[in-house]
C-alpha cells in the first residue's frame, strides 16, 4: 500500500478538496495512520475514530465531507454502521467509502444497499485512495450545487418559486411567534412583456427580464434589506415576467404601497437592450401579513388576485388586496365545477408520450398523460386542473379513469398492432393516491377488468410525493411490488434526498429529471454528474430513463454515456393513439439517423 506517486501528480486533487473534512473509522491504528499519511497531500482536515460508536460521535461533531469506514469494527460491521448513519437525518447525506479486504459480492451489495457511495479493497495505493476520495467529494458537491440550482432562477440569479415559497412560509411562521413582526408580499407582472417578447424575440425578452431583476435588486437591497442568501426580504422570479417580493418588517399595507410606487417609477424607465429601447410598465398586487395568513400559497394567491385587479384598473399601478377581489377565485370555482362535470361524463382524454430505447431504437413504453379541452376556455393545462383535482380529491376518480383507459388502450395495441405495441404502459400516481389505503385493491380491480398483467404497468411517483406520505407510500409501493408492478422514481435529481429514496423504496426504474438532461451540455461537471447517476443506477440494478431530451446534442451525449432509455420532445411529443403508429413509421429514420 505504499504511495509511489509524486506530489506533483496530486496538485489538482489538493485544489479540489483542500477545505474538505474526512473521517477515518478503523480500529487498526497502523492502517489508520497509513490512510492519514496517504491523504496528507490533499491538505484536508482528517479525523480518526477506532470504533463505530466513536465514529458516529465524531460525525455528529464535525459533519465530514466523506467517511472512510472499515468494514470490520469491534462494535459492528460496515453495514451496521451504515444503517446507524442513515437513521440520523443530519448524517444520512454524508457519502461513505467502505474499506474492506473482502472479495465477497454479497458484502459489497449489502454495503451499497445500506447507503455506501463507493468501496476500496485492501491493499490499496495512495493514488487510488485519493482518487476515490476526490471523486466521491466532487460528486457530492455537484449534487449540492444541483440542489442549489433547483432553487435559483438560472436567467436572473434570483430565488425561484421553490425558494420563495420556503422563505414566505418562514416569514408567516415568524408572525405567529413575534406579535410585533409584520411583512408584505408584492406580486409584480409586466404589462407589455408578451408583446416585446413576440415582436423583438426571446433573446431581447430575456435581456429585459434580467434588467428588471437587476433594477428590483438594486432598488430594494439598500433601503429594504433584500438578500438572496438569508431570511429577510426576498425578491424572486416565479417564471415568465412574474416577480414576487417578500418585503420584510413592514408595519402596514400602506407602507408597502409606498415601496410599490417607488418601484413602479423605477420599472417604467426605458430599457436599453442591445440596439432596442424598450418601455414596459408593471402592475403590482399587495397583501399584508396582518390579514392572518397561515399558508404561503394562500398569500401568493391573494397577491396574484390583487395584481390582476391592478391590471383591471388600467395597469402601471398597484392594488392592495381586499376580500372583494374575488374574480380570480370565482374562476377557480368555475374550473372546479367544470372539472367535476368533465370527470363525471368522462370528457377528459389521454395522450401518450413514447419512452425509447437509446440502444436499439425500440419502443419500450408510453407514458399516459391526461388532457382537458374545456368547451368554453379551450385547452386547460394539467398544471392548472391537476392541483385543483388534488385539492378536492377529484384526482381519485380521475386517476382511476386514466388507468382504466390507458390499460384498455394498451390491450388494443397488443391485439391490433403487435408489431408496434409497447412493452408496458406508464401511469403517474398523485400525492393524494399515495395516502389512499384502498389504492392497491382498486388498481388490481381495474387490471382484472381490462385484462392487463401487473408487470405490463409501470407506476411513477416523485420524491416530493413520497416525502409527503412517507410511511403509507412505502407500504403501498411494497404492496404494488409484491403484485408484480414496475415502479419508477420520476424527476430524480430535483429533490433533496433522492439517494435515500432509492434505498428505501423498491424501485425498478430511475427517471432522470430534465434539469440534469438539459445541463449536460453546459460543462464537464454536469456531464460527470449525469454519468455518475447512470453508474449508480446500474450498481443498484435500476433501469435509467433520461427525461427532457430536446436536442440532438443531448441524445448523442446520453448514448455515449450508455444511458439505456430516453423520453422527450426531440424523440416524440405526447400524441393521441391515432397519431402514434404514423409517428413510429418515421421515427427511426428522422431522429436516430440524425444522431
Report on the architecture of this protein:
By secondary structure, the chain is α/β, with parallel strands linked by helices. The protein has 3 domains: 7-149, Rossmann fold (3-Layer(aba) Sandwich); 161-325, Reverse transcriptase/Diguanylate cyclase domain (Alpha-Beta Plaits, 2-Layer Sandwich), CATH 3.30.70; 352-370 and 396-592, Alpha-Beta Barrel (TIM Barrel). It is built from 23 helices and 23 strands. The strands form 5 sheets. The protein has an 8-stranded mixed β-barrel with strand order 15-16-18-19-20-21-22-23. Helix 13 crosses helix 14 (382-392) and helix 15 (395-416) runs parallel beside helix 16. The longest helix has 24 residues, at 126-149. The relative contact order is 0.06. Residues 2-14 and 221-231 have low confidence and may be disordered.
Amino acid at each position: 500500500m505504499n504511495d509511489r506517486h509524486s506530489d506533483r501528480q496530486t496538485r489538482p486533487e489538493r485544489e479540489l478538496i483542500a477545505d474538505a473534512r474526512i473521517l477515518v473509522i478503523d480500529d487498526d491504528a497502523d492502517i489508520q495512520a497509513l490512510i492519514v499519511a496517504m491523504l496528507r497531500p490533499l491538505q484536508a482536515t482528517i479525523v480518526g475514530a477506532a470504533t463505530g460508536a466513536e465514529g458516529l460521535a465524531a460525525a455528529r461533531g464535525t459533519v465530514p465531507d466523506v467517511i472512510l469506514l472499515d468494514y470490520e469494527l469491534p462494535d459492528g460491521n460496515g453495514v451496521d454502521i451504515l444503517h446507524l448513519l442513515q437513521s440520523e437525518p443530519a448524517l444520512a447525506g454524508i457519502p461513505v467509502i467502505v474499506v474492506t479486504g473482502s472479495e465477497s459480492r454479497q458484502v459489497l451489495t449489502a454495503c451499497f444497499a445500506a447507503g455506501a457511495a463507493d468501496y476500496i479493497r485492501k491493499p490499496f495505493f495512495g493514488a487510488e485512495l485519493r482518487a476515490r476520495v476526490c471523486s466521491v467529494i466532487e460528486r457530492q458537491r455537484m449534487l449540492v450545487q444541483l440542489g442549489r440550482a433547483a432553487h435559483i432562477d438560472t436567467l436572473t440569479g434570483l430565488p425561484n418559486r421553490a425558494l420563495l415559497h420556503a422563505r414566505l412560509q418562514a416569514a408567516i411562521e415568524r408572525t405567529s411567534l413575534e406579535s410585533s413582526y409584520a411583512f408584505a408580499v408584492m406580486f409584480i407582472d409586466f404589462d407589455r412583456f408578451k408583446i416585446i417578447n413576440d415582436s423583438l424575440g426571446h433573446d431581447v425578452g430575456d435581456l429585459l427580464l434580467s434588467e428588471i431583476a437587476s433594477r428590483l435588486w438594486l432598488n430594494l437591497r439598500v433601503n429594504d434589506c433584500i438578500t438572496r442568501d438569508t431570511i429577510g426580504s426576498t425578491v424572486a422570479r416565479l417564471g415568465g415576467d412574474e416577480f414576487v417580493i417578500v418585503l420584510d418588517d413592514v408595519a402596514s399595507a400602506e407602507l408597502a404601497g409606498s415601496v410599490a410606487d417607488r418601484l413602479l417609477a423605477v420599472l417604467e424607465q426605458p430599457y436599453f437592450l442591445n440596439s432596442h429601447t424598450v418601455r414596459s410598465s408593471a402592475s403590482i398586487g399587495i397583501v399584508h401579513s396582518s390579514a392572518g395568513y397561515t399558508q404561503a400559497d394562500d398569500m401568493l394567491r391573494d397577491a396574484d388576485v390583487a395584481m390582476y385587479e391592478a391590471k383591471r384598473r388600467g395597469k402601471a399601478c398597484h392594488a392592495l388586496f381586499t376580500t372583494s377581489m374575488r374574480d380570480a377565485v370565482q374562476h377557480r370555482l368555475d374550473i372546479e365545477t367544470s372539472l367535476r362535470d368533465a370527470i363525471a361524463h368522462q370528457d377528459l382524454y389521454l395522450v401518450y408520450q413514447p419512452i425509447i430505447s437509446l440502444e436499439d431504437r425500440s419502443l419500450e413504453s408510453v407514458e399516459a398523460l391526461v388532457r382537458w379541452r374545456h368547451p368554453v376556455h379551450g385547452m386547460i393545462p394539467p398544471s392548472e386542473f391537476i392541483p385543483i383535482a388534488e385539492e378536492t380529491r377529484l384526482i381519485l376518480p380521475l386517476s382511476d379513469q386514466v388507468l382504466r383507459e390507458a390499460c384498455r388502450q394498451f390491450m388494443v395495441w397488443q391485439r391490433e398492432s403487435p408489431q408496434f405495441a409497447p412493452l408496458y404502459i406508464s401511469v403517474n400516481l398523485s400525492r393524494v393516491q399515495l395516502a389512499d389505503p384502498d389504492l392497491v385493491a382498486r388498481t388490481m380491480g381495474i387490471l382484472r377488468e381490462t385484462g392487463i398483467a401487473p408487470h405490463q404497468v409501470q407506476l411513477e411517483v416523485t420524491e416530493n410525493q413520497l416525502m409527503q406520505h412517507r410511511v403509507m407510500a412505502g407500504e403501498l409501493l411494497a404492496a404494488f411490488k409484491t403484485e408484480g408492478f414496475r415502479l419508477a422514481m420520476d424527476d430524480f435529481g430535483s429533490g433533496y434526498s433522492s439517494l435515500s429514496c432509492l434505498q428505501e423504496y423498491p424501485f425498478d426504474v430511475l427517471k432522470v429529471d430534465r434539469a440534469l438532461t438539459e445541463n449536460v451540455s453546459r460543462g464537464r461537471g454536469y456531464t460527470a454528474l449525469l454519468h455518475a447517476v447512470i453508474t449508480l443506477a446500474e450498481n443498484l440494478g435500476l433501469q435509467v430513463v433520461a427525461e427532457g431530451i430536446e436536442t440532438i446534442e443531448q441524445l448523442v451525449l446520453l448514448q455515449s454515456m450508455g444511458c439505456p432509455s430516453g423520453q422527450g420532445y426531440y424523440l416524440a411529443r405526447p400524441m393521441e393513439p391515432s397519431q402514434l403508429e404514423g409517428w413510429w413509421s418515421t421515427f427511426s429514420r428522422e431522429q436516430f439517423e440524425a444522431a
